[in-house]
Structures are given as structure tokens and as C-alpha cells.
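From: lab user (bench 3)
To: helpdesk
Subject: output format question, protein + 6-O-phosphono-beta-D-glucopyranose

Hello, I'm new to running complex predictions and I'm not sure whether the block I got back is the full result or only part of it. Here's what I submitted:
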Amino acid sequence: MPKKTKPEPTVFIVFGGTGDLNARKITPALFNLYLDGWLPDEFAIIGTGRTEFTDEQFRKNLLGGVDQFSRKGKADKKIWQEFSSHIFYQVADVNNAKAYDKFADRIEQHKKDWEKDPCVVHYLAVAPRFFSVIAENVAKSKLADYLPTTRIVVEKPFGRDLESAKELNALLQSIFDESQIYRIDHYLGKETVQNILAFRFANAMFEPIWNRNYIDNVQISVSEQLGMEGRGSYYDTAGALRDMVQNHLFQLLCLVAMEPPVSYEADEVRNRRVDVVNALRRIRPEEIGEYAVRGQYGAGWIEGEKVESYHHEEDVPKDSSQNTYAALKLFVENWRWNGVPFYLRTGKRMNEKKSVITIQFKPVPHQSFPAQTAANWQPNRLIIEIYPCVGIRLEFQAKRPGPEMLLSPVDMQFNYDEFDAADTPEAYETLLLDIMEGDSTLFMRADQVEAAWRVLMPIVDAWDDTPATDFPNYESGSWGPAEADALIAKAGHSWASAPGID
Ligand code: BG6
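Helpdesk reply: Thanks, we reran it on our side. This is the complete output you should expect:
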């Protein structure tokens, strides 16, 4: 990963330009990059959709998104004017190859004005069923002339199983070189997530104990309070396993478990990540009950407000057996991690929105202190906090002040707030800049996506094929189904962020 510089002249085409993702994430991120001086002087953003809009109307809609969702708050009028003069709208039906020539004409015009060949980014902010047709039409239309300097960005979900992911990879790779394909997982752009690598590999003191000899178990927990928020029709085809585990939680697992890369080159880091997925124990269909628990929320209370069950969500069938919660016990079968359970869990409508990784160390080999000195004794824990706190916390034992020898756990803490939070980019800002600079370190390579599906397919198939009979099995506002506690209690463990423990 080279030091960041301003990207080359770029034409950024957003398919699905009138959609939610563009309004909430992509345009606010591009605007912030502009504010921070990261965009080149020669850039153009072309949004596309099926509805007719003038450039002015389109810009106005996007301003609404920036004002509402940007981390920097409402846009300054004058600066927005300058920035939005680079935004254009082109109505197009993505199924019609002819329509794509209009983008090529626009690029040609920019090329003339700038007197330079621009880099062309096709951002597919559309439903997955359009990924293939857009890629094919790019290749069939005049846009093909720009293929050597084109990048294509694909949002998740990348496939809905191993077969469809392979098909999509094959199609994309028949048009683009792998180095031109950017499969986004926004978790990789989060500051603390990237900081896991710095923490592990820029410090000498943690790596010697980062293995089965010292670590008892690892927990990766991503809980959300939100329900469907209008996304029911998508979510009911995905569920927690496809929506969160196959991508976001697996990325976190890879960063915690990977071997030290020789360099911070994209392929070296990606090789080490994919090694982790390839080392995951394959779960046989008959063993799924020992390794995985699914859940679906019923009605309940969140922050004092009554919320409905999953079955009452808009666009969700009343008898849906889709999972909104998943917990897994995984093993990375290699020299470093043999025998160490990695517990993953994620769910909607849980008690708190919280993302944490807990590295639970083994107890001391011998207790020098009498049992009564340490009523509240706990083995060391290293907690990587991703949300809402952003930082790293080490829990260790200390002597309580006073005449007696009494021990209690204390924290050593690093908070990201110690840096200027306003300077902390959002995941999408980091990732969009990387795309424009051609740096794919923080993106998923074809083999990683397929490897992740390969590991999960037995569970995906079993859960798709056998509808759950006990849904809903957790109340909204709870910490998920009791079976998930049982899943890890078998090995004497409990979820670290359960109330009263953290
Ligand atoms: C998205 C999922 O990829 O990630 C959503 O589709 C989920 O269902 C979201 O809510 C969570 O992201 P974050 O950054 O809020 O943890």
C-alpha cells in the first residue's frame, strides 16, 4: 500500500445513483474526500437511474443525503456548489446495452476537456441481480474502449452461495482483470478494523502470545438494535449468515487470526487473509447443531420502545423461517490456533448496537495468591472495540489499594477519541480513495469470497432446507437465543459482552 497521493483524473459512474446507498454513503464520502483535498481537480461523478432527473434535481437530492448523513454535518453552500458542479445525471436502463454509449460519450468529453485519459470507475450500487448485466453491457458498449483504465466496484452480497459467487467471479474475470475488480466489504475500511493489523504487527509484545499457548478463545460479536428498516424484501432472501457472517464477521476473524504478512502489499495481505479461511474446519452436515445456532426475533422492547417481531416487518412473509441471528463456533486448523474456538455471533434487534472482538487469555498456570484475595478474579482479556467505543482495552489484575492483598481487574485503555475524531474518515471514504488510487489491499479477492462460501455452505444449505420450528426464539432487546449461550457453555465459555460481564 503506497502512501496516499491525489488520484489521477477520474470519472466515477454510480449505477443505482438515485438509491439509498449513494445518498447515505457514497456521495457523503466523496464530498468529504473533496473537503479534505483528496479528490483530483479533474473528476466527474455520473449518477444513473431509470427516473428522469436534471443534473440540478439530482444534485439537490444528493445534498439532502449529505446534510443528513455526512459525519461532517451539513454542507457549506458555497463548497457544495463547487463540488456538485462535478456531478451529473444520466438516465439509463441498465438492461439496455445501447444506453451505455451515452456514458462513453460523456467520458470522451471529459477526456477532451482534461486532455488526459481518465480512470473510469463503475460503482454497482444496485441490487445483486444487476451485477452481471451491467458488467456485460460495459463490455458490449462503447465503454469497452476504456476497459484498460476501468475499475469495477461490486457491493455485497457477492453471490448467495458458492455456485453463484463462482459464476459472478467467472463473468467479471472474463471482462476485467482481477486487479480491476473491487469487492467492497465496508468493515475493512473501518479505522479500528485496520488498526488490528497495526496493533498486531507494528508491536513486538503481542505477537509472541498471540496463539494457542496463551489464548483460550476468541469472540467476535456484532449486535444491532435495528430491525429491517424497509429492507425486508432483501433481508428475507439473505438472513444474518449471508448478510453479516460470510463477509463482515469473516473479515474480522481473518485479521485476528492471520499470520504476519511479509509486506503490506495488497496480494500479500490478501494471501494471509485467505489462508485463515482455507484453514477453517469444515463442518459436516450432521454436526451443524454442535457448531451453529440460528435465531429470529420476536416482539420486545428496545430502549423503552415496543418493537414488533420479524414476522411483522414490511415485506417479510408471516411464516418466514429466515434467520436474523447466527452464532458459530469455528476452528482455525493450523499450528497457531489448533484447538482455540473462535465464537462468532451477530443479530438484529438485540439489546445493544455493539461490535467487539474479545481475546480471552488463559488463566495463570499457578495461583500464587490465596483464593480469598481474588474474589473477582478473571483471566486477562484484550478487547478490540469497534462500536460504539472505538479503541483497544486490556484487562488485567491489579492490587486494590489498602493494607490487604486483594486483587481486582483493571483496564488499560486506548481510545480513538484521543485522536481528533473529526479527522477519522468513514469506512467508505477510505475505500473509495483506495479504489481511485488502485489499491486493493482492503478489498476481497475472488478466492477469499469463494473460500468463505465454501466453509459456510453446509450451514447455509441446512438452514435453507430445514425451516426452523422454534422461531421466533429470542425477544427483541435480548442478547439472542438461549441456545447460543449453550453453544459456547459446552466448552465452559460465556459471551463476553453479556450484561453484567462486561
Ligand atoms: C450491512 C448489512 O452490510 O452492514 C446490514 O447489510 C448491517 O444489515 C450493516 O446493518 C452493519 O454495518 P455497521 O457498519 O453499522 O456495523
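A quick orientation on your result: The domain at 188-421+446-489 is CATH 3.30.360.10 (Dihydrodipicolinate Reductase; domain 2). Let us know if anything else is unclear.
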